[in-house]
Input
Amino acid sequence: MSRIPLGPLSGNNLGDYLREQRQTARLSLRQLSELAGISNPYLSQIERGLKRPSAEILQQLAKGLEVSAESLYVRAGILDERQGHDAEPLDTRAVIGADPQLTARQKAALLDIYDSFVAAQEAPDRKRPAVKAAKTTPTPRK
Output
């Protein structure tokens, strides 16, 4: 089931956006809190702008609302909204390193994973050669 995208928002903050998405999805606070795995009071505080959620909480909310986590990160100020394809690419290592929500151990783990993905993309394509099927000749029936 896909959600209907909203037009311009009445307010330009994360709480208003979350509330409008939740209402469009016809979900109560309780229903979304259960889908996202967070408490009902905490979700209410986020919607009212009293609490600033972590990237992990935003990801859980995005999943519950069936919207992109990136859109929530932009609204929360975690990511800058990029203008078209001409925008400067994000320095992933710097973004991970600067995230105040992550512990040093979490940052190290994320950087290790990121580096392994980048290394895999840069490695030459090492596909195994295709194996040709052995040509068989049918045995005549007696």
Q: What stands out?
A: The helical segments are 14-24, 29-36, 40-47, 55-65, 69-76, 92-98, 104-122. Residues 133 and 139 are 17 Å apart (CA to CA). Residues 1-12 have pLDDT under 50 and may be disordered. The two ends are 60 Å apart (CA to CA).
